[in-house]
From TrEMBL:
Protein's name in the database: Uncharacterized protein
Keyword set, alphabetical order: Membrane, Transmembrane, Transmembrane helix
A GO BP entry: protein folding
Gene Ontology MF terms in the entry: unfolded protein binding
GO CC field: endoplasmic reticulum membrane
UniProt organism field: Steccherinum ochraceum
InterPro entries (alphabetical): Chs7
Superkingdom of the source species: Eukaryota
Length: 310
């Protein structure tokens, strides 16, 4: 059967620990259980995914310790991101401090949800897992808007940190979160016929969910890096900060390549782990490098020392 735009079936089948598959497992379970093969048929052991070629079984099943590697990395990333938020907060005079801190806070919020939705310790098909996955999807969409919003505000269209900046910035955070979460809940729980179920069911198709969770993050990241390169090179006429943004872009791309290409290879080699923990390390490293890039273009605004006139 050919793959159409918005089909999650190839991703759920070939990408271990792909969180949005949690939404479709509930959909398939409620509609046509015969589609599920032996790997996914039993929710008491089923890994993340729908009929995955490889997956980490539910915690406790056949001695599984859940997706322990990614759980540990997510926990460490939470601490690291908290440190970055503290670093931004203490730079009280830095340009774009409030907006960049909001981006970091949103990224921080995605991490515990990622830990849960890819951790393989909640039963597939459970309402709790569907709701948490939907919130995770909303946070991811909102996080990438806040990333793009930071680049837009760096052009100084409006003054950062003011109501004219914060109101639209916050409005779109809420809008992306609410829209994506609602769509994801509808896909997973099917309380309306607008966004689910998939037709045909075997394709696991949802174009709106695919756009908000797959197309939008990549597009937002691409536009962000293009805008920041323009600002640093064309407006600020600086070269050193460019390397931070190039490194962040490389790390982000590598994280996605690992997640979609290498993860299954790692899982096949050792079914107790997959590549999700490497992707999380690379993503968090990219966020850390973005912090260094932001600091490098706002360092003259740092307010570390108090000046006492003579």
């Amino acid at each position: 059967m050919p793959t159409n735009f918005g089909d999650f079936e190839p991703l759920c089948h070939n990408t271990p620990s792909y969180p949005w598959c949690n939404l479709f497992y509930r959909q398939v379970q409620d509609t046509n259980k015969s589609i599920l093969n032996n790997v996914s048929a039993n929710p008491n052991t089923a890994p993340v995914g729908v009929n995955p070629t490889c997956g980490i079984p539910l915690a406790g099943a056949d001695g599984s310790i859940a997706n322990i590697a990614n759980i540990i990395v997510c926990a460490l990333s939470i601490v690291f991101t908290g440190f970055l938020i503290w670093g931004v907060s203490r730079r009280r005079a830095a340009v774009g401090r409030v907006e960049f801190r909001m981006f970091l806070i949103l990224y921080l919020l995605t991490l515990p949800f990622q830990l849960i939705t890819t951790g393989s310790f909640l039963h597939q098909g459970s309402t709790a897992l569907v709701v948490l996955t939907a919130i995770h999807a909303g946070l991811v969409a909102a996080t990438f808007w806040s990333l793009l919003g930071n680049a837009i505000l760096s052009t100084q269209i409006v003054e950062d940190g003011t109501l004219s900046s914060l109101i639209p910035f916050s409005f779109f955070i809420v809008a992306f979160f609410v829209a994506t979460t609602y769509i994801a809940l509808d896909v997973g729980l099917g309380f309306t016929s607008v966004f689910g179920p998939s037709s045909p069911l075997v394709n696991l198709n949802s174009i709106p969910l695919f756009v908000f969770t797959s197309i939008w993050p990549g597009a937002a990241a691409l536009v962000y890096f293009a805008l920041m390169l323009y600002i640093v090179l064309g407006v600020l006429n600086e070269v050193r900060p460019v390397w931070y943004y190039i490194l962040a872009a490389v790390l982000f791309v590598l994280s996605q390549l690992d997640y979609f290409l290498l993860s299954k290879v790692i899982c096949n080699a050792s079914p107790k782990v997959d590549g999700s923990f490497i992707a999380t390390i690379l993503e968090t490293a990219a966020v850390g490098v973005l912090y260094l890039g932001w600091r490098s273009i706002t360092e003259e605004s740092w307010d570390d020392e108090i000046y006492y006139p003579r």
